[in-house]
Design a protein that fits this description.
With 440 residues, the chain is mainly alpha-helical. 70% of the residues lie in helices and 5% in strands. Residues 50-54 have low confidence and may be disordered.
């Protein structure tokens, strides 16, 4: 990775793209510290302090993804979350609604229209999340300073809703500009930077604690060891794939002979990436999000906290939460695998190009064979994602309970996936540059 960065900076065009990406990410991080008038940030941050009795588990999780911006009540408090949720919803709708499915298959023009619909949905979700968070903060005495708005609480809430929605749209714009002028996917890089920023803040606090308690250094060493082991394990699985050999028969077209070569169909164990985890956590967190934002402290909120939460004090509640989460991960893993890998289309493509899998007849037999392999690999991928959902938190809690939230269950997978994708993008652009130089 380090050698790839060094080689990339030697190429002027790639160096300019990397510097542009870093500049836009710097703008994002600056926006995470721009305060919003009308909020008492000391009262505001109590909802994100795990040691406070007023803390909110769901909002603490949201804040970790934004790099602490939500905990500070700043301009980019919502982060890239509304856009990511809108993208997931549109992706699901494109599968379930025939007009959107046809639109997604109309090439560049269709993708532009879907992107526009995603932006409109982002605005709607940003407004809903802003209202929910502000209503939740309004229940904390002194959190909203209505005196700055002529003692009208509704006016203060309207102002903050507009500001937070505008901040979410600005983050969306920064992500798109990174995609256009930088390297890699802009939205992924923003999430990547947000998670690393949260991790850095937590680790810095631990380092400061070392001045008063020397035993903290052992907690940091254990945490670093756990991180290294998990990173290597995730990279090992992420690069694993099943290669299905395909043989192409020789074909004579005109005066030329084509085919006669062998190829492979790579099927990755973690081909769906982090998406099943995001889907599962989004679905299972939805009831808790509603209760936390709109009915905090109610009987419904207490029931979810005690009987359907990963941090539930009731052992039965944690077991129920874990079982439901695993079932959702399994379900979304197979759902997303069918979206990414269609055995029927691949079988037809192989047959049309004069190819075959040795020992398997072309047509329906090939389709059934590929489907069986895909289901088996997806099963192992779902088990792997289920382990990723729980083991990191358990190991980090063993290393140091204060560092559990440094990397969330999906955060550690996102960090590794984005870093590997960034390296692949750099290598691809350097290879393209070499080809251009050779042609000249």
């Amino acid at each position: 990775m380090l050698q790839t960065l060094i080689n990339a900076f030697k190429v002027k065009d790639i160096r300019r793209k990397v510097l542009m990406m870093l500049l836009l990410l710097l703008v994002f991080r600056i926006g995470c510290y721009i305060p919003v008038p009308g909020l008492d940030h000391s009262v505001f941050s109590e909802l994100f302090d795990s040691t406070s009795e007023n803390s909110n588990a769901f909002l603490t999780l949201m804040s970790s993804i934004t790099g602490g911006a939500l905990a500070n009540g700043t301009l980019f408090a919502l982060g890239i979350g509304p856009y990511i949720n809108a993208s997931i919803i549109m992706q699901l709708l494109c599968v379930g609604i025939p007009p959107l499915e046809r639109l997604s298959k109309q090439g560049e023009e269709g993708r532009k229209k879907i992107s526009q619909y995603t932006r409109y949905l982002t605005i709607l979700l940003a407004v809903i999340q802003s209202v929910g968070i502000i209503v939740n903060f309004a229940n904390s005495e002194g959190a909203i300073q209505a005196s700055l708005f002529f003692d009208q609480t509704w006016l203060a809430g309207l102002f903050m809703t507009i500001v937070y929605t505008a901040g979410a749209l600005l983050v969306m714009w920064l992500g798109e500009r990174i995609t256009d002028y930088g390297v890699g996917n802009g939205q992924s890089m923003i999430i990547f930077v947000g998670i690393l920023s949260t991790a850095g803040q937590q680790i810095v606090r631990k380092v400061i604690e070392m001045t008063s308690d020397i035993n903290v250094i052992w907690e940091l060493i254990a945490f670093i060891i756990v991180c290294v082991v998990l990173f290597f394990a995730i990279i090992y699985v992420d690069l694993s794939e099943r290669k299905v050999p395909v043989q192409y028969a020789k074909q004579i077209k005109g005066r030329k002979m084509y085919g006669g070569q062998s190829s492979v169909i790579p099927i990755r164990i973690s081909g769906s990436g982090v998406m099943p985890l995001i889907f599962a956590f989004s679905i299972i967190s939805f009831p808790q999000m509603l209760s936390s934002l709109f009915w905090p402290g109610s009987a419904f909120d207490d029931f979810l906290t005690n009987w359907f939460s990963g941090s539930a004090t009731n052992v039965a509640g944690r077991i129920i939460y874990s079982v439901v989460l695993c079932l959702l991960i399994f379900g979304f893993s197979f759902f997303y695998a069918q979206m990414q890998f269609n055995p029927e289309d691949i079988s037809k493509s192989i047959q049309q190009n004069g190819g075959f899998i040795q020992g398997i007849r072309p047509g329906k037999a090939t389709e059934a064979y590929l489907k069986k392999i895909s289901n088996r690999i997806t099963l192992f991928g779902a088990i792997y994602l289920s382990l990723v959902a729980f083991i990191p938190s358990l190991l980090f809690a063993w290393a140091s309970y204060d560092l559990v939230n440094v990397f969330s269950t999906t955060g550690i997978l996102i960090v590794v996936s984005v870093a590997m994708e960034f390296e692949k993008q750099l290598q691809a652009q350097m290879m393209m540059k070499n080809y251009k130089g050779f042609l000249k």
